Amino acid sequence: MVVCLARDSFPASEVLEAGELRQLWLGRKVTIHHNPMLRPTLLNLYILAFIGKMKIFDLVWIMTQGGPLWSTETVSTYVYKRAFNWNTFDLGYPSAIAAVWFGVVCAAVMLLNRVLSSRERLEF
C-alpha cells in the first residue's frame, strides 16, 4: 500500500491535464490514467511477494520444524532436514532439490511477468 501511495503521490502533470481536457469523472480518471501507471509497480510487488512466499523457512522452522506429520513442510525445510538433520550428510540430493526449486521459482516469475505486464508501452 505504501509503495502504491508513493508511486501515485506525484502523478505526471500531462496525465492530469489529459483527464481534465477529456472532462472525465473521477472513476474514469482512475481506471484510464492511474491504473496503467501503477501496473509496473504492482507487477514488481507481486513478484517480490511471490519470491518471499516461496522461500519461507524461518517461521516454519521456529514454530513447528515441519510440523506434525509434515503438515507444515515446505521445500526449504525439507532441503534443510535432508541435508543436516537426518544424519546422512548427503548434500547432493538436497542441492539438486534446491537447484530445481530455483528453476521453478524463476519460471513462475517469468510467467507472472509475461501475464501481468502490459501489452502496449506507456508514453509519458
Structural write-up:
With 124 residues, the chain is an all-alpha fold. The chain contains six helices and no strands. The chain has helices spanning 2-8, 13-22, 26-54, 58-63, 75-85, 92-116. Helix 1 packs across helix 3, helix 3 (26-54) runs antiparallel to helix 6 and helix 5 (75-85) packs antiparallel against helix 6.
Strand and helix layout:
Blueprint: H1 2-8, H2 13-22, H3 26-54, H4 58-63, H5 75-85, H6 92-116
Please describe the structure with a list of short key phrases separated by commas or semicolons.
124 residues; mainly alpha; 6 helices
- Rg over CA atoms, rounded to whole Å, is 22 Å
Structural category is: mainly alpha
Indicate the proportion of strand residues: under 5%
- The number of helices is 6
Mean pLDDT across all residues, rounded?
82
- Give the strand tally: 0
Biggest beta-sheet profile: none
Shape: elongated
As an assembly, this protein is single chain
What would a concise description of this structure say?
The chain has helices at residues 2-8, 13-22, 26-54, 58-63, 75-85, 92-116. The protein is an all-alpha fold.
